[in-house]
C-alpha cells in the first residue's frame, strides 16, 4: 500500500484467533485491536484505554508539605533577589573600575 508521502507500507501478519479473542473481549475498532495485538498490550494497558485513571497526590492536603512549599518559595525568591542585587552591585563596581582605568 502506498501512502500520501509516497512510502510503501505493509500490514503486519497477525494471529487471527487472538485478534478475534481481543475483539470479542473489548469494544474497540479493528485498527485498535490490531495495535493491541501487535504491541503486546497487557490487561492493565487495555484497561487504561477505556477508563480514566484517577491520580491522587498524597502530599496535597498535608500541612507540613504546604508549609515547606511556602518556605521554599520564599527562599528561592529571596535568593533570586539577592543574586540580582549582587550582579547589579558587581556591575556598578566594574563601571567604576573602568572609569578609573580611563582616567589614568
Explain what the structure shows.
This protein folds into two domains: 43 residues; 49 residues. Helices cover 65% and strands 0% of the residues. The chain is built from four helices and no strands. Helix 1 crosses helix 2. 2% of the residues are buried. The C terminus is likely disordered.
Q: What's the layout of helices and strands?
A:
Blueprint: H1 16-25, H2 30-38, H3 43-50, H4 63-103
Helix pairs in contact: 1-2
What key attributes describe this structure?
65% helix, 2 domains, elongated, disordered C terminus, single chain, mainly alpha, 104 residues
In short:
The protein has 4 helices and no strands. It has helices spanning 16-25, 30-38, 43-50, 63-103. Helix 1 (16-25) packs across helix 2 (30-38).
* Span between termini: 80 Å
Q: Note poorly predicted spans.
A: 97-104
Largest sheet: none
Q: Kindly state the number of beta strands.
A: 0
State which percent range the strand residues make up: under 5%
**Annotation field: number of helices:** 4
SSE class: mainly alpha
Average pLDDT, to the nearest integer? 76
Q: Could you say how many structural domains there are in total? A: 2
